[in-house]
């Protein structure tokens, strides 16, 4: 679990920053919420950190420690879930971005591991409108490209929570964190139009919506590799002079 926290020293940051025209930081944002009986509460944080590490291995970016609690209100019916308000998450990301700019790191990529963090899109939109350099990653299109490359069978609609994608990434990056049961926990609920009102408990008793039985470590490896490739366009955009 030590790979969740970057091991950089201040000299590492100084050296990396000297080699680029514009510095970019990467902030993983996860959550602490139920993921069925077989994935840990920290699953979204583990996924966001795995994506961020893959990016940091391919591009000269400053990897930040994760935000581990976010907006998981739809999972409140399950023990262990902890949330902060969207206002708080908005303020935390803005404060981090402002602190980075004071350190001459003027571009921030937020790597979001939890679909319920809707407010992160607002943070990026508002920051961009002020002329600040910020991006939200991965987009749905990046996930779709990764799904196809990795041979993930489940659609993004069906693979909503604790399904094939999340199980695959943890089987690759943190197999020690999985418990038995994902092999027979598939549950599908594609029509979730009242999710914001009813929460997850209105659609699933187990907390799972997806097909975790289809997960594999090889799919997880390919998912992360594809996302790292997709990040190239974001890096180019944020470091350009335009």
Structure, explained:
By secondary structure, the protein is of the alpha/beta class. The mean pLDDT is 96.
H/E element string? HEHEHEHEHHHH
How do the strands of the widest beta sheet line up side by side?
2-1-3-4
Q: Identify the overall geometry.
A: globular
Q: Helix fraction? A: 40-55%
Low-confidence runs of at least 5 consecutive residues? none
- What does the main sheet amount to? 4 strands, parallel
Question: Total strand count, please?
Answer: 4
Cα separation of the termini: 39 Å
Mean pLDDT metric: 96
**Given the structure, what is the number of helices?**
8
Strand fraction equals 5-15%
- Structural class call reads alpha/beta
Specify Rg, calculated over alpha carbons: 18 Å
Fill in the keyword field for this structure.
globular, 242 residues, alpha/beta, four-stranded parallel sheet, single chain, 42% helix
Write the layout of secondary structure elements.
Blueprint: H1 10-18, E1 24-29, H2 43-58, E2 62-63, H3 86-102, E3 107-112, H4 119-129, E4 133-137, H5 140-150, H6 164-173, H7 195-198, H8 217-239
Parallel strand pairs: 1-2, 1-3, 3-4
Helix pairs in contact: 2-6, 2-8, 3-4, 5-8, 6-8
Care to give the gist of this entry?
The protein is built from 8 helices and 4 strands. By secondary structure, the protein is of the alpha/beta class.
């Amino acid at each position: 679990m030590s790979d969740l926290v970057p091991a950089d020293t201040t000299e590492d940051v100084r050296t990396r920053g000297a080699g680029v025209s514009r510095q970019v930081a990467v902030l993983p944002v996860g959550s602490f919420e139920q993921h069925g009986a077989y994935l840990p509460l920290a699953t979204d944080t583990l996924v966001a950190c795995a994506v961020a590490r893959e990016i940091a291995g391919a591009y000269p970016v400053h990897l930040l420690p994760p935000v581990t609690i976010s907006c998981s209100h739809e999972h409140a019916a399950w023990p262990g879930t902890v949330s902060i308000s969207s206002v708080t998450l908005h303020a935390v990301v803005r404060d981090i971005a402002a602190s980075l700019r004071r350190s001459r790191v003027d571009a921030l990529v937020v790597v979001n591991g939890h679909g319920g963090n809707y407010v992160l899109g607002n943070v990026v939109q508002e920051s961009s409108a002020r002329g600040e350099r910020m991006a939200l990653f991965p987009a749905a299109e990046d996930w779709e490209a990764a799904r196809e490359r990795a041979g993930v069978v489940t659609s993004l609609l069906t693979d909503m929570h604790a399904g094939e994608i999340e199980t695959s990434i943890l089987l690759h990056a943190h197999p020690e964190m999985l418990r038995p049961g994902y092999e027979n926990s598939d549950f599908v609920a594609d029509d979730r139009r009242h999710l914001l009102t009813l929460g997850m408990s209105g659609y699933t008793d187990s907390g799972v919506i997806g097909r975790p039985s289809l997960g594999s470590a090889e799919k997880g490896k390919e998912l992360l590799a594809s996302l790292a490739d997709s990040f190239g366009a974001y890096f180019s955009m944020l470091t350009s002079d335009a």
